Amino acid sequence: MVTWIMWGTLLVIWFSFLFILSFLIDKRRRMLFGVTVPSDCMEDPEVLEFINRYQKRKKRFTMLGLIFTFPIIYFDNFAWVYSYFNVYLVIFFVWLYWIIYQGNRQMKSIKSAQGWRVGEKQAVYVDTKLSKEDKSEKQPKLFWLIPALFLSFEPLLSQHPLLQSAAWLMIGTSIFLCLLAVIVMIKLKRTSPKVYTGDTGTDQKINDTWKARWMTLTLILTYYFILFNNVIHRFITGSGGDIGMGFTVVIIMGSVLPLVPLLIMHRMRVKMVEDLRQDRELLEVDEDDYWIGGIIYYNPNVKKTFVSTRIGIGSSVNFGTTAGKWLLGGSVILTLGLILGSWAFVVAEEFVDPKILWDEEAMYIQSLAYSDEIAYESIQEVTTIEELGNTTKTNGTATADYARGSFNVRSYGKSRVYVFRETPIILVIHLEDLTVFYNEPTEEATLAVLDELHRRLEDREDRGRSNCPL
Amino acid sequence: MLLKISFESPTPIYQQIRDQIILAMAKEALLPGENLPTVRQLAKDIGVNPMTINKAYNLLKDEGYLVIDRRQGARIQDAGLLKNEKTEYLIEALELILSEAKLKGVTKEELSKVILRIYGKRRD
Question: What is the model's pLDDT at position B124?
Answer without folding.
Answer: 45
